[in-house]
Amino acid sequence: MLTGPFGALTEETPAPGLRVLQPERGYRWGVEVYALAAFALGIGGPASVPAATAIELGAGSGIVSLLLASRGLTVRGWELDPAWVQLARASARRSRFEGRVRFSVRDVRSPTRAAPADVVVCNPPWFAPAAGPRSPDPRKAAARTMLHGTVQDFVNAGLRLAPRVCLVSRPERVHELRFEGCFIARSAVLPGGAVTLAEVRHGEGTTVCEPFDLPAAYAAFRGLPIETPS
Ligand SMILES: C[S@@+](CC[C@H](N)C(=O)[O-])C[C@H]1O[C@@H](n2cnc3c(N)ncnc32)[C@H](O)[C@@H]1O
User: Fold this and answer.
1) Top mutation candidate among 65, 81, 101, 146 for ligand 1, by most atoms within 8 Å of CB
2) Which of 120, 153, 192, 211 could join 158 via S-S bond, C-beta 3.0 to 4.6 A?
């Protein structure tokens, strides 16, 4: 069994050729990671959105960065916790993607100089510290609860790095966002309504609420045939 500072690890194949490690217990990704990577590229939506380079903020296991790399993007994944960065680097090596994805330790709250990217993606922690019980696992708590920065902090950092920032979050967190000279250009709701995808862009404009085909997005990454209802 694979182990690390997280305890036992599992290896997943989220897309053909990818070998991504995550803790067996603790913070594990859900379907929102496919949704975020797809939304950033317009997969599962009405039109594709081209991008060649991306930065992921709060990369965790690196799953979103690696999914984007599997579609040919060059990606930088930034993460506060060095243990996650080590794990994500190991997954990049196992996937033979070291040339296409670079993970480093960075805090979204510290302004930093970096080459811009076409798009920033993030799946920030979204629970308020006062809301409900917190996970006793410190890494899971830091992934789920806004202990080291808010959704707004992630978006603000992203807007310094790219012309568009795609995030996945709770609808109320997206509605709370405030910015000057930027607007939510696209949004979509995942099945069930509890999770929203949004793209923030520089400039002015109105929000287009897009349909989002989650099964098609999932199938596109997994390399599965897209089933159409008969
Ligand atoms: C919800 S998890 C998302 C992990 C991964 N991107 C995914 O979608 O599975 C949020 C991640 O943000 C990281 N994080 C929290 N605060 C941060 C900060 N101030 N700077 C950088 N990363 C941070 C957490 O450690 C965690 O890995």
Assistant:
1) 81
2) 120
pLDDT of residue 228: 54
Q: Each residue of 13-51: pLDDT tens digit?
A: 999 999 999 999 999 999 999 999 999 999 999 999 999
Report d(CA 127, CA 151) in Å as an integer: 9
Amino acid at 35: A
**Do β-strands 101-105 and 119-122 pair in parallel, antiparallel, or remain unpaired?**
unpaired
Q: Is 79 in the pocket of ligand 1 (CB under 6 A)?
A: yes
Q: Whose CA is nearest to atom 14 of ligand 1?
A: 58
- Kindly report the protein residue whose alpha carbon is nearest to atom 24 of ligand 1: 143
Domains and CATH numbers, the chain: 31-222 (3.40.50.150)
pLDDT value of position 1: 55
How do 196-202 and 164-169 pair as beta strands?
Answer: antiparallel
Phi, psi of 136 (to 5 degrees): -70, -15
CA 149 to chain centre: 16
Residue 6 CB–ligand 1 contact under 6 Å = no
- Residue 60 Cβ < 6 Å to ligand 1: yes
Cβ atoms of residues 182 and 200 within 8 Å: yes
Tens digit of each residue's pLDDT (9 = 90 or more) over 128-152:
999 878 888 999 999 999 999 999 9
End-to-end CA distance of the chain: 43
